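Good morning N.,

You mentioned wanting to compare the apo and holo forms, so I went ahead and generated the holo version with adenosine-3'-5'-diphosphate. This is what I fed in:
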Amino acid sequence: SRQTKLKEVAGIPLRDSTVDNWSQIQTFKAKPDDLLICTYPKSGTTWIQEIVNMIEQNGDVEKCQRTIIQHRHPFIEWARPPQPSGVDKANAMPAPRILRTHLPTQLLPPSFWTNNCKYLYVARNAKDCMVSFYHFYRMCQVLPNPGTWNEYFETFINGKVSCGSWFDHVKGWWEIRDRYQILFLFYEDMKRDPKREIQKVMQFMGKNLDEEVVDKIVLETSFEKMKDNPLTNFSTIPKTIMDQSISPFMRKGIVGDWKNHFTVAQNERFDEIYEQKMDGTSLNFCMEL
Ligand code: A3P
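and this is what came out, ligand included:
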């Protein structure tokens, strides 16, 4: 049994170490040329990060291969003393920086907004995201125990998981997409047409790479490649943090796995809640490919 508990900031459950470091996070000084990768957990953060990384290095696999993925673009809210926090790591980085966050808009350090930074948001359909998060919760030893699928189902729909409600997170970023420099992508689109989505990211980053380089990036960032690559599959993380014998980080990487988890009754109930919570947004998710 795990001792871990989440703490809250303004009603949003977060890792306790993040909350303990909150003043450093809130006073973080963004720079105008920062690019921030933003996601609700389990929406394809690692995938988009590797795409951005490859684009940044002009598709030079050798260069990309030299660092383990979790060290490349720090999470600004990450903290585990005595190690340097995400903020410490970001502060030590040369510009232009690429950073990551799972924070909802209302908790983002204000300096990002005042510096008009670029944001790359990736959204994944709620049901697959929920399933992926469940398996992550089971294996990630620094998160609370999720309990049974049925118990976790309630926790998720009530937004009591780490980083809060999927509904509020996705809606929050979607609603401000035209007010800031936000490229809003969908996991399902990335699965369907990775080349097109990678080209969008390239444009957004102001890069113009040859088609053969883009094709190489498509190949190198495929699920199969990333699952086999020790620099992208988190296999270097100790078992005391991620026990991948319970569930691998690179688990399935598909659209529609929710069908293997939701009962018919759960699905009906979820659809009803979804309608209520997402009422009035123009967001549309693809639920199967
Ligand atoms: P599953 O658990 O459904 O397999 P994050 O990086 O935000 O934590 O998201 C992890 C999810 O993205 C996992 O989903 C993982 O398998 C999936 N993923 C990671 N790399 C991927 C890739 N290259 N293509 C498709 N899915 C990928």
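The chain is about 40% helix and 10% strand.

Happy to go through it together on a call whenever suits you.

Best,
F.
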